[in-house]
Design brief:
The complex is a heterodimer of chains A (about 290) and B (about 325). By secondary structure, chain A is mainly alpha-helical. Chain A folds into 2 domains: about 60 residues, no CATH class; about 210 residues, MetI-like (MetI-like fold), CATH 1.10.3720.10. In chain A, about 70% of the residues lie in helices and about 0% in strands. In chain A, α3 crosses α7. The longest helix of chain A has about 40 residues. The two termini of chain A are about 50 Å apart. Chain B has a two-stranded antiparallel sheet. Chain B is mostly helical and about 325 residues long. Chain B has a single domain, classed as MetI-like (MetI-like fold). Chain B starts with 5 loop residues before the first helix and ends in a 7-residue tail after the last helix. The chains are: A mainly alpha (about 290), B mainly alpha (about 325). The interface between A and B is large, with 103 and 103 residues.
Chain lengths: ~290, ~325
């Protein structure tokens, strides 16, 4: 009895200590983000001196000056540009990756094993080996300066991560429904549209979600291909706050627009949490 | 349907499958395979996309320009007979990138595993904690956070403000001091351990509780249990995380670009390989050289991945009771 109580007390102490440690570390981890949000409401000259979280004075001036944007284009336009690119990227990825995944997971065809292996290799391929020729190719098409080099590859299932994720998911679906549909005279396209798409919907949401986040946060492709300020996305436009030598002239504006730029990720994260965990633990999505 | 011959059936089945595969196949050939071959070809030329007509075949010059700095050369006689300077920054970009990868990835995985083990106890509120710990990963890749990081580690930034209240004086600007700037990027990467943590947590849940109970009966303490049960049983997950993070870390770009203001930082202390490649290709229009750099990066990543895979037979176990 006594030893049982001791064990319980021991567990209680250990759990309490764990809670304290996890909470302390968690606070330390999100402190910079909370500080950014709070500081975006501080007057520009107080951001430097004040590490605290409670602002001594509150102002929306940073949002007004930051919103003015860059080279006569406001952040309203940058947000619209980002949203358009993300929407097209999602449509492209969901359609093309689900189609490829259905073929890999369910259809029997000559060369399936070979192509699947090829797909898995491209998963690990650093994008840099295709960078220069892709740039030359898009330049020849006259696409540099437009959103096409960013959006069109998504319609060709170039993000093998999502093909893999969807293959894993579709393989786990029960085959019986599809077999019954085929006996009823349903073709492969019918099976795909009426059975696979509805059943694989959760994995398609995960695909859409991560496509959104990665496209929204992508900087490298936007830096390469979006050359005119009126085509800039939010991430490309945020870079304009940092000068070439790294100096930042308007810290308040930078933190204010930075705060606005992370809102979509927050909203999606808190509304679609289960899809995040699913996506990360089935494929080990990067990050 | 019944009257279809075997061959017709075979073709029909294949046609349908390849129609579903068509977008991916097209993407593979046009956007992956062809560009890869093309960039390999370009790596033997002095291609500049602003004057493509003057492109010359220069053999291995790009590679000599790269590796010359590693063996201490400063110049060499090129294929065309001219004296060419080696790339003086290539060596630096390699050492910066290797330091970054081999410090940040192990640190990130150790922290992720440690936190995952803590959270794997039957605690209340684990899903809430998991959410909070994932937030830096959710946002960490963005330009907004990179800009914030600059602000935090500047001379009069938040970190020095906090250290100042603890009594530290004479604090440096962590961003512009070449001794520390890379470490701010390493910290930024380790901070984003959320994905690895979630993968470890999923792996830990697969380990049957009975193993720990049996070990406790045998008198093994928690540390012993961790090293003789948790680590071996989790080793396939560790291998997976390690490979993905190494591949990913070699390609890091955005944070270094923003924090260095589009350059490699003070004394090129944050000149990541990819950043150097971008500057060569797009600032100096040395696209043949950039292609050669990209191929070497591919070989480096491939080689290191292969080494990790081969080493895994000594430390990864796919079963219990070895």
């Amino acid at each position: 009895m006594g030893s049982g109580n001791n064990m319980k007390t021991g567990t209680l102490v250990r759990h309490t200590l764990t809670h304290v440690f996890i909470i302390a570390l968690g606070l330390l981890m999100i402190y910079p983000i909370v500080w950014m949000i709070v500081s975006s409401f501080k007057p520009n000259n107080m951001i430097f001196s004040d590490p605290g979280l409670i602002p001594k004075a509150v102002t929306t001036e940073n949002y007004i000056t930051g919103w003015k944007g860059y080279a006569g284009t406001t952040f309203g336009k940058f947000f619209a540009n980002s949203l358009i690119i993300c929407a097209l990227a999602i449509i492209g990825n969901v359609i093309s990756c689900t189609m490829a995944a259905y073929a890999f997971a369910r259809l029997k065809f000559a060369g399936r094993g070979f192509w699947f292996a090829v797909m898995m290799v491209t998963l690990m391929l650093p994008g840099h080996v295709t960078l220069v020729p892709r740039y030359i190719m898009f330049n020849t098409f006259g696409w540099v300066g437009s959103i096409l080099p960013i959006v069109v590859p998504k319609f060709l299932a170039t993000d093998a991560f999502f093909v893999f994720l969807l293959v894993q998911f579709i393989r786990g679906l029960p085959v019986e429904v599809e077999e019954a549909a085929i006996i009823d005279g349903c073709g492969k396209l019918g099976v795909f549209l009426r059975i696979i798409v509805p059943l694989a919907f959760p994995a398609m949401v995960t695909t859409a979600l991560f496509t959104f986040l990665w496209t929204w946060d992508d900087f490298f492709n936007h830096l390469l291909y979006l050359t005119r300020p009126d085509t800039f996305t939010v991430s490309r436009a945020l870079r304009t706050f940092v000068g070439d030598a790294g100096a930042v002239s308007n810290w308040g504006g930078a933190l204010a627009m930075g705060t606005l730029s992370i809102i979509p990720a927050f909203i999606l994260f808190f509304t679609l949490q289960k899809y995040f965990v699913q996506g990360i633990s089935t494929t080990g999505l990067k990050g | 349907m019944r009257d279809m011959s075997g061959i017709a059936k075979f073709f029909r089945r294949n046609t349908v499958a390849y129609m579903f595969l068509a977008p991916w196949l097209l993407g593979f050939f046009v956007l992956t395979l062809y560009p890869m071959a093309y960039s390999l070809g370009l790596s033997f030329t002095d291609y500049d996309f602003t004057k493509p007509d003057s492109t010359q075949w220069i053999g291995l010059d790009n590679y000599r320009k790269m590796f010359g700095s590693l063996v201490g050369e400063s110049q060499f006689v090129s294929t065309t007979g001219e004296v060419m300077r080696v790339d003086p920054y290539y060596k630096k970009s390699l050492s910066v990138t290797f330091t970054y990868v081999f410090v940040s990835v192990p640190l990130k995985l150790i922290v992720a595993l440690g936190v995952a083990v803590l959270m794997n106890q039957k605690l209340r509120g684990v899903s809430f904690y998991r959410t909070v710990y994932y937030i830096p990963t959710l946002l960490g890749g963005s330009v907004a956070i990179a800009v914030l990081w600059r602000k935090l580690f500047e001379k009069d930034g938040l970190v020095n403000g906090a250290l100042g209240t603890l009594g530290f004086t004479d604090l440096p600007s962590w961003i512009t001091n070449p001794e520390y700037s890379l470490w701010t990027l390493i910290l930024l990467t380790v901070w984003q351990f959320g994905s690895s943590m979630i993968i470890f947590l999923a792996g830990l849940k697969q380990i049957p509780q009975e193993y720990y109970e049996a070990a406790a009966v045998d008198g093994a303490n928690r540390v012993r249990q961790f090293f003789s049960i948790t680590i071996p049983l989790l080793s396939p997950v560790i291998l997976f995380n390690l490979i993905m993070q190494v591949i990913y870390a070699f390609q890091a770009f955005t944070q270094a670009y923003i924090i260095g203001g589009g350059r490699g930082g003070v004394l090129n202390s944050t000149l990541f390989y990819t950043l150097h490649l971008y500057i060569q290709g797009w600032t100096y229009h040395e696209m043949g050289y950039a292609s050669a750099m990209a191929w070497v990066l591919l070989l480096i990543i491939g080689g290191i991945t292969a080494i990790i895979f081969l080493s895994s037979r000594w430390w990864v176990s796919y079963g219990v009771g070895e």
